[in-house]
Structure formats: structure tokens, C-alpha cells
Specification:
The chain is 45% helix and 17% strand. It is an alpha/beta fold. It folds into three domains: 61 residues; 184 residues, Rossmann fold, CATH 3.40.50.450; 82 residues.
Length: 346
């Protein structure tokens, strides 16, 4: 029998017994407690809600998430790059050609790409990607957003009813974000990515604002951000480190490759922030790291360490070297600078 906190139960002995029976059939040892809570929530919804609209929303969300996890699960060990941009860009436009070239070159480096599945820049991303290396997360709209014909494997197309579940999967299943010129949707996706990174709700990642040579799209956008957000102190000046404006495809590919050259991943355990690395830092690099970034620590120093018990229990990259620090969980622009510094070490 799974030991579940008493405060999260159905309150009906017969229903609780049926949930426990289902767990014996459906759950593994490591997932039992979580599946118990999911089933309990579903039963509580049935007992507490008489609003069909509420239940339809929950039903659709669960279905979309379940299917998305199923599609992405076999590819979790491959890093993926989002390609956002306008659905209205013509094939003759410079941003379309740039996105197509970028998708080809980044997938040639072993990455996969995820697009919004529609026409324009999204189509260019699927068109340029090497066969089998692209996904499409399409949103069902009454206009303009029909799946493009360039996705190489149709089982990697996921159709969403809700923007919020689609956005969640974009973030959860990716490791880098590129944004090409676009409209409200592109800006919405870009600002959301920046907000998640700025607040620590997303792990560190490269965010590239891609525009063709001669374009002022993102430079004008940055001008607005500096003039109105930074100057009015709505964001910190250091938050400008959360993104890069890129006008050259090869530079964009290089920035994404370099981001994961030394840095591997991040983990929070209690008040500790753990950076997992692809190589061990030299004593000199570690000393300089502490000198440059002591301002973002609440206490102590940045030091090498072993995997935590939580990481060992979940078998989270036990062989990788680690840095452990008490990061203030506030200066994420500076944290991106720290990652950049790590990736420049020899």
C-alpha cells in the first residue's frame, strides 16, 4: 500500500479503495504517490464539480499533455531548439530563408528542432531540418494555422486546442529558443520565455533573437526594452544578458553549441544550486569564477561537490562533475553570465 498524506484523499472509502486497486495495475514503485494524487484529483473533480465546461477543460489538457509526453519521451536525451516566428512570412522573405538555413545547420550538429507547425517561419524550420529531426506543435485556429507539409515524420505532429498547454510543451521539451521576426504570437512567446528565464522558472538556456542582415526588427525591439523597461527599472540592466541578437546563422548555431560545451544542466536542492558540468574546472578557473560571481551568492563560495542524495536516488547524471553554490535565486541574468564564463574555460 502506498503511504499518502491523509490531507489529500477523496474522503469516500469506496472510491479510495478503487483508486488503490487502480494503482496496483497502473503504477510503478517510483510513480505510485504521484499517480495517486492525479487519480484523487480526478475523482475529487467528479465529486465536487457540476460544471461540464470545467471538466472538459481538464479532460482536454490531460489528453494533450499525455500524448505530448508520449511523443517526446523517446527523444529526451537529444537537445532540441525551438524556432518561433511569423506564420505570414513568405518563402521569398529573408527571415524564411534564414530560418530554413538555421534549421538545416543546427540539425546537422545533432540537435532537433521544434516549430509551431504552421506556415511561414515555422514551415521554414520544418523544411530545413534534416529528416527525422523535427517536431511540430500546431495550434488549432479558425484561420491561417494549418499544419505545414514539411514535417518529415507525421507522428511528430501534435495538435493543441490550448495555447497554454502548447507553450508548456515548448518549454519543457526544449533546450534553446530562437525567435525570428513575427507578430503578436512571436512577441508573446518571446516575452514569456524571457520571463521564465528571468524568474528561474526555466533552466538556463540560450535565447537568440534572429534577424537577417540589414533588418532592424530585434534591434528596435531592444531599443524599446532599454528605453522603457531598463530606464524605468522595470527590469534590471543585467536582464539584457538573457538574450542575444543574431544576424548570422553560423553565429547562432555556434552560440547554442557553446552554451552546452561545459555547462550541462542545473538542479536545485534545498538552498543549494547545483550546476552539472561536462568537464572538471581547473583550480584557476574555479578561483576566478568565485571572484567574478560572489555577488550572486547568499553565503559561502562556489565549490566542487558530489551528487546529492536526491540526484543519486533518481540517477541524475551521477558521473558528471558538479559545482555547488548558494545562489540568491534572483539574479538570473548574472547566472547566464556565469554559464557563459564556464563555457569559455579551457
Amino acid at each position: 500500500m502506498v503511504r499518502i498524506a491523509k490531507e489529500y484523499r477523496v474522503g469516500n472509502k469506496q472510491a479510495q479503495g478503487l483508486i488503490d486497486e487502480l494503482l496496483k495495475i497502473c503504477a510503478s514503485g517510483s510513480t505510485q504517490s504521484l499517480l495517486h494524487e492525479i487519480l484523487t484529483s480526478c475523482v475529487k473533480l467528479g465529486m465536487e464539480s457540476r460544471d461540464k465546461g470545467d471538466l472538459k477543460l481538464v479532460n482536454n489538457v490531460l489528453k494533450e499533455l499525455r500524448y505530448s509526453f508520449k511523443v517526446f519521451s523517446p527523444y529526451r536525451n537529444i537537445k532540441k531548439v525551438i524556432i518561433f516566428g511569423s506564420a505570414r512570412s513568405k518563402q521569398s522573405s529573408q527571415e524564411y530563408k534564414m530560418a530554413e538555413e538555421f534549421a538545416f545547420k543546427i540539425t546537422k550538429k545533432g540537435f532537433m528542432v521544434i516549430t509551431g507547425g504552421g506556415p511561414g517561419v515555422m514551415e521554414a524550420g520544418n523544411k530545413g531540418a534534416l529528416p527525422g529531426s523535427d517536431f511540430a506543435l500546431n495550434i488549432r485556429l479558425p484561420f491561417e494555422q494549418k499544419p505545414n507539409p514539411y514535417l518529415s515524420e507525421k507522428e511528430k505532429l501534435i495538435n493543441f486546442k490550448y495555447f497554454f498547454t502548447r507553450k508548456l510543451i515548448f518549454v519543457k521539451e526544449s533546450d534553446a529558443t530562437t525567435l525570428f521576426p513575427g507578430g503578436f504570437g512571436t512577441n508573446d512567446e518571446g516575452f514569456e520565455m524571457l520571463t521564465l528565464l528571468q524568474t528561474g522558472k526555466s533552466a538556463p538556456r540560450p535565447i537568440l533573437l534572429m534577424e537577417p542582415p540589414g533588418s532592424t526588427y530585434w534591434r528596435a525591439w531592444k531599443g524599446y526594452v532599454v528605453e522603457h523597461l531598463v530606464k524605468n527599472k522595470y527590469i534590471r540592466k543585467e536582464d539584457l544578458n538573457l538574450f542575444h541578437i543574431v544576424t548570422d546563422v553560423n553565429k547562432g548555431v555556434g552560440l547554442i553549441e557553446d552554451f552546452y560545451r561545459v555547462y550541462h544542466s542545473i538542479r536545485y536542492v534545498g538552498d543549494m544550486t547545483i550546476l552539472r558540468l561536462n568537464k572538471t574546472l581547473s583550480s584557476k578557473s574555479l578561483r576566478l569564477l568565485n571572484q567574478k560571481f560572489k555577488d550572486i551568492l547568499t553565503d559561502g563560495i562556489i565549490s566542487p561537490g558530489a551528487p546529492t542524495s536526491e540526484e543519486v536516488q533518481k540517477n541524475e547524471f551521477p558521473d558528471l562533475p558538479r559545482l555547488i553554490m548558494k545562489f540568491n535565486r534572483r539574479d538570473y541574468g548574472r547566472l547566464l553570465q556565469l554559464v557563459s564564463y564556464l563555457n569559455q574555460t579551457k
